[in-house]
């Protein structure tokens, strides 16, 4: 991009799984850009809108009015259709993977966009990084309920997901105690245990199983039996969807032509059967699933989202591209996209893990 040319017009996109706070970022980016006299265009359904430019939404003050508190995204999103390996049907039920990135870059420039604010998790930001290498001036905004992105202490969406999961665990306590049952509650988080650990501790779980800590089911059963002997005839086990049973993850659906990631899910049911068999205690499983993505963003998530949105526009104005805005309290700063897309799992020596152990919560490894 010609660095002497003033910024006049920016695009904004939301990619990957939705996370509470996306609309707050869209609204903030729009308002801050308009304040600077820029035009803003929303690219619909991830970056799909750049293949069909009729799917570009002018973002005016009116277009973003009243959306800051809503979950979802007014732009739509997708975790399919990577432009560098775009699935094109061959007509026989199979697909070719075609690199359509040149077409996308051409359309971006044809629309007169000077920069792209890409709001996404590791998948979308990896694509954003590759587009940056092809000449699109891009600034990333870290979004995911999983909180698994490096470079930022928090992603927006996480706090709301933790609240949703904690409230669910709170509710299950009553019925678990009433029926003297064990409940295994499965939460999202992909290959990281952030949601499980935070919601499990906050919700008073008796055992928390996360991908970062290999566990033995026998250890969980012993914990349940110890509680039983002590007169506490119910237990709550929180398990992250990406935790491994016998060294393997439980998968709901394999990756396919258009989606590179497997869909995790089902570990709670597997564990519930095993716990019931080993302890003789009636055990139920509950999968919280997408309910964790649908709650209204908490004030914490809204504020992080808004600060990220404002920082993204500031970063574009500074012509600093190929970076992601990031929270490093009390600052919002920028980190190279290439570093940010590395996965951030729960450090085993972190205070949150130590806290769980010191409270006597079983993490499955002893
Ligand atoms: O990355 C966010 C997330 O909600 C993960 O926690 C979960 O594994 C995945 O997305 C679910 O994806 P989908 O919405 O495609 O089922």
UniProtKB/TrEMBL annotation:
UniProt similarity note: Belongs to the phosphofructokinase type A (PFKA) family. Mixed-substrate PFK group III subfamily.
Named cofactor requirement(s): Mg(2+)
Binding site for substrate: 144-146, 181, 188-190, 241, 284, 290-293
Catalytic activity: beta-D-fructose 6-phosphate + ATP = beta-D-fructose 1,6-bisphosphate + ADP + H(+)
Pathway as given in its UniProt record: Carbohydrate degradation; glycolysis; D-glyceraldehyde 3-phosphate and glycerone phosphate from D-glucose: step 3/4
Residues reported in the UniProt entry to bind Mg(2+): 122
Main location: cytoplasm
Organism of provenance: Eiseniibacteriota bacterium
Gene Ontology biological process terms, A to Z: canonical glycolysis; fructose 1,6-bisphosphate metabolic process; fructose 6-phosphate metabolic process
This protein's UniProt keywords: ATP-binding, Cytoplasm, Glycolysis, Kinase, Magnesium, Metal-binding, Nucleotide-binding, Transferase
Record keyword Methyltransferase present: no
Subunit: Homodimer or homotetramer.
Function of the protein: Catalyzes the phosphorylation of D-fructose 6-phosphate to fructose 1,6-bisphosphate by ATP, the first committing step of glycolysis.
Annotated compartments: Cytoplasm
Domain Phosphofructokinase: 10-315
Protein name: ATP-dependent 6-phosphofructokinase
Active site per the UniProt annotation: 146
């Amino acid at each position: 991009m010609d660095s002497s040319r003033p910024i006049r017009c920016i695009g904004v996109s939301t990619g990957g799984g939705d996370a509470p706070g996306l609309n707050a970022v869209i609204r903030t980016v729009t308002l801050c850009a308009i304040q600077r006299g820029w035009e803003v265009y929303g690219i619909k359904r991830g970056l799909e809108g750049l293949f069909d430019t009729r799917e570009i939404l002018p973002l005016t003050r009116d277009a973003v009015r009243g959306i800051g508190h809503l979950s979802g995204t007014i732009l739509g999103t997708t975790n399919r259709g990577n432009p560098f390996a775009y699935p094109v049907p061959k007509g026989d039920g199979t697909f070719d993977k075609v690199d359509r990135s040149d077409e996308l870059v051409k359309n971006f420039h044809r629309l007169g966009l000077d920069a792209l604010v890409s709001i996404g998790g590791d998948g979308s930001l990896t694509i954003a990084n590759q587009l940056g290498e092809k000449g699109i001036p891009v600034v990333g905004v870290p979004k995911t309920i999983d909180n698994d992105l490096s470079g930022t202490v928090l992603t927006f969406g996480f706090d709301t997901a933790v609240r949703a999961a904690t409230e669910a665990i709170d509710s299950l306590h009553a019925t678990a105690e009433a029926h003297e049952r064990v409940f295994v509650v499965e939460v999202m988080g992909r290959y990281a245990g952030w949601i499980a650990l935070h919601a499990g501790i906050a919700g008073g779980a008796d055992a928390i199983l996360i991908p970062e800590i290999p566990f033995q089911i026998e250890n969980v059963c012993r914990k349940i039996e110890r509680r039983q002997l002590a007169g506490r005839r119910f237990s709550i086990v929180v398990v992250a969807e990406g935790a491994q049973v016998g060294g393997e993850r439980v998968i709901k659906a394999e990756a396919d032509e258009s989606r590179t990631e497997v869909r995790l899910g089902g570990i709670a049911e597997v564990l519930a059967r095993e716990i019931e068999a080993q302890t003789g205690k009636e055990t139920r499983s509950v999968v919280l699933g997408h309910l964790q993505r649908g709650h209204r963003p908490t004030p914490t998530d809204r504020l992080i989202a808004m600060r990220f949105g404002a920082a993204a526009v500031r970063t574009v104005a500074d012509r600093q591209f190929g970076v992601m805005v990031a929270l490093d309290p009390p600052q919002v700063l920028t980190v190279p996209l290439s570093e940010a897309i590395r996965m951030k799992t729960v450090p085993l020596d972190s205070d949150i893990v130590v806290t769980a152990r010191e409270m006597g919560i079983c993490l499955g490894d002893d």
